[in-house]
Amino acid sequence: MSKEKKILRLNMQAFDEAWHLKYAYTHLKDNWSPAPWKKELMYFVIDWLSQSATIAAETSGSTGVPKKIKLSKEFMEVSARATLDYFGLLAGDKALLCLPAKYIAAKMMVVRAFVGKLDLYCIPPSLNPASEWTPPLDFAAFTPAQLSELLKTEKGLSFVKSIKKIILGGGIVPAVLESKVQTLDTQIWHTYGMTETMSHIALRKVNGNDKSGFFYPMPGVQLAKNDSGCLTITAPNLGIFGLETNDLVEMQQGGGFKIIGRKDNVVNSGGVKLFPEQIEQKLSGFIEDPFYVGSLPDEQLGEKLTLFVESEDAGESRQEQIRKVLNERLSGLEIPRAIVFEKSFSRTESGKIIRKKQSMNR
Fold it and tell me: Domains of the chain, with CATH numbers?
C-alpha cells in the first residue's frame, strides 16, 4: 500500500488521515449514532487507514458459496488506478458514492477517491439516489435498478444528464433500460467483476457509437473458458491466477465475452439446457412484478422451466396477461411450462432475489 499521505476529499474539502480517524472514532464512540450507511462508511475508512495490509470482505457467490476473504490493500490500489486511468479521471474530478459501504463496489469508490484525489460526494444509498445538492459529476456507479428508477422522473433524468460517465454493476442491464439510455450524452458502461477481483475486470459500453454486446477485459487481465464453459480470470497485477467463476460464457475471437448464465442456474429440461438469465433478459420490462425463471421437478422432463412471479394477484386474468407476454417475447422451449405466484421472494441483504433450489438431482 502506498506510503504517501492519505487524504480523502469530501464535498470540495480535503481531510487528512488524522482528521478522519478522530472524526470516526468520536462519532462511533459517543452517544450520537450516525445513520447506518455513514457508520459503515466510517468503519471502512478506519480499516483503510489502519496498518493492516488487508481488508476483510464477503464474496458475492460468483465463484461459489459466499465466504469471508481478505483483500490486499496494495492490489485494491492497483485496481483503483486501473479504473482511474481507463476513464481518464484526474485529481479534483467529482465522483458520487450512493452504494452501501459494506459491498466492494462502494469500497472501491472510496479507494479511487483516496488514490486519485477525487472529490467524493456521499449520499444515502437508495433505489432513487437523485441528489439536488451535488454539482455536475464526472463519475458515478449505480446498480441497473437505481438507473432505471432515476429515468422514471424528470428530476432523476436531469440528475443522470449531469453526470459525464456512469458504470453499472450488480446485475444484468435490462433491454428496456439499455434502449432508454441510447439518446443520452452521458457515457454508460456495464461492468463485470466480483469481490474477489476487487471490482470490475471487464467493461461493456452500453451506449454511444462504440456500444457493444460484449464485455472486454481491462488492461492486464487474461480470460479463458474452462472445461465446464465457465469464465476463468488471470490478472497478475491484481494477484489473481486462474480464478474460476460460475459464469457460463460465450467467448469472442477479439477477446470479448458474453455471459450466458450461471452454471448453478441452468435448467436441464428433457436433456435440453436452458439459461434462465437469457430468458429473463427478454422478459425484462414486460412483466410489472418482480420475477425470475427457474424450474420445478417433472417426472418426464426431469425439470420443467417455470416462471416465478412475486404478486398477490394470481387470478386468471393476471395469468393470461403474463402468458400473453411469454408467447410474444419467447419462442419454443424458452416458454415456461408453469407460472408460480408467490407473495414474497426471499432476498439477499443487497436486494437480489434468492432463487429456489430444486431437490431433484440434475
Answer: 7-262 (3.40.50.12780), 266-342 (3.30.300.30)
